[in-house]
Amino acid sequence: MDSAEPKTTETAATAAEPTKLRADARRNRDKLIEVAAVVFPQKGVETSLEDIARQAGVGIGTLYRHFPTREHLVEVVYRRELESLAAAARELAEKHSPDVALEEWMRRFVGYIATKRGMSNSLRILMTSNSSLFAEGFGNMRGALDSLLKTASQQGYIRSDMDTADVMHALASIYSIPDSPEWRDRSLRLIGLLMDGLRAGK
What we know:
By secondary structure, the protein is mainly α. The chain has helices at residues 23-43, 49-56, 60-66, 70-95, 98-118, 120-129, 131-154, 164-172, 183-199. The protein folds into two domains: 23-70, Homeodomain-like (Arc Repressor Mutant, subunit A, Orthogonal Bundle), CATH 1.10.10.60; 78-199, Tetracycline Repressor, domain 2 (Orthogonal Bundle), CATH 1.10.357.10.
């Protein structure tokens, strides 16, 4: 634990973005979130908050003004990952053919899993205080995947007998792959195998 970190058991009941921040304060907050989103998957959620603040170019006091506890920062990063993943489905569908959009979204899902693995300890704490975050996030993810699958199926890019729940379970199983230097490469290979199965017999 960081020596400067407040001794508190408070968890983040909500992490809605403040609406009344000066432009410089908002930039600082956004930078802290961006750095944490990179550091947590790499080093784990217990990484030094002072290090996150230093990489963001702010003082530790600034970090605590925006995020009073570690769990507040974890929740905001996790929420941002969920929102980005849902938004990516729409963006990819506009830029690519349905099968390519689906595969690229699933590859981004690997990035989401990496972030979740890096924050697992704090996410378990959050589950007891803000379970609606996870229910809402899962619903949004499943909705995004369902939309991509249906479009690809209806346009003949993948097989028509697929089930969104089955594909979601297959993607979620990536989380169980042992942590190792090859974890991401192995996960992406599994995405390729999953897409081969979805395209087969279409």
